[in-house]
Amino acid sequence: MAVLGQGQPALLVKVVMAGESCVGKTSIVRSYTEPGAPACSSSYLATIGIDFKVKPIMLNDTRVKLQIWDTAGQERFHTLSTSYFRGAQGFVLVYDITNMDSFQGITSWMKDIHEKAGDEVDVILLGNKCDKESERVVPKRKGEKLAWEHGIHFFETSAKDNVNIEDAFSLLTKEILEKVSSECAYCEEVTCRWTKQTFYVQQSNVLSKDHSCLFG
Ligand SMILES: Nc1nc2c(ncn2[C@@H]2O[C@H](COP(=O)(O)OP(=O)(O)OP(=O)(O)O)[C@@H](O)[C@H]2O)c(=O)[nH]1
């Protein structure tokens, strides 16, 4: 894998948040990208359409710019939300441990992800709101079993108390980087017809030879 130092441009990684409405997707993104600020508020404000945040991180000496797309979970936004799945390298798929319907919806979300983003994409499953133990209706072993059946990693998280959020994003990003370095599934090699210089094209991003985004 290309090792990018401080002075070098960052590798751009697109991650999409998915899951039913009100499971805590926005709060998880907030907890991760705005440390110190309250991730949860007493009033719930549904995501309308789509939003995104950027989080620069350093992982094993590689500079990464995580572009996190926060989709709306409400059914009326389903077509719009899933249209952002295409081209993503990773998904954070979330259910709420106090809401059985949100857990039962996970299989359908997995289907959407594979249909739109392919079978090779990395997914991590989060059972959120683990601070609400007294209201739990989804046992932890059910989440573990479902993740195991899909061959993906699993964490129980709390956006409110910032539990396991950083670990979840780090593990997902690590898996994505391993894939990019081993087979570069997302890049297409292009040679400039005038300068004969080689570039890699990843979606709309032009990447330099070491796969770091030139516009990073
Ligand atoms: N106790 C607790 N509440 C949480 C947690 N995460 C989110 N919430 C609350 O749950 C509600 C919904 O959170 P959001 O982050 O807006 O949920 P969402 O999945 O983005 O919802 P949509 O935008 O409709 O898709 C809010 O009132 C949050 O404050 C958590 O870890 N613990």
TrEMBL record:
PROSITE patterns: RAB, RAS, RHO
One Pfam family hit: Ras
Reactions the enzyme catalyzes: GTP + H2O = GDP + phosphate + H(+)
Membrane-topology descriptor: Lipid-anchor
This protein's UniProt keywords: GTP-binding, Lipoprotein, Nucleotide-binding, Prenylation
Gene3D superfamilies membership: P-loop containing nucleotide triphosphate hydrolases
Domain of life: Eukaryota
Cellular component terms (Gene Ontology): membrane
Compartment(s) of residence: Membrane
Leading EC class: hydrolase
The enzyme's E.C. designation: 3.6.5.2
One MF annotation (Gene Ontology) recorded for this entry: GTP binding
Similarity field: Belongs to the small GTPase superfamily. Rab family.
Name of the protein: small monomeric GTPase
The organism of origin for this protein: Anas zonorhyncha (Eastern spot-billed duck)
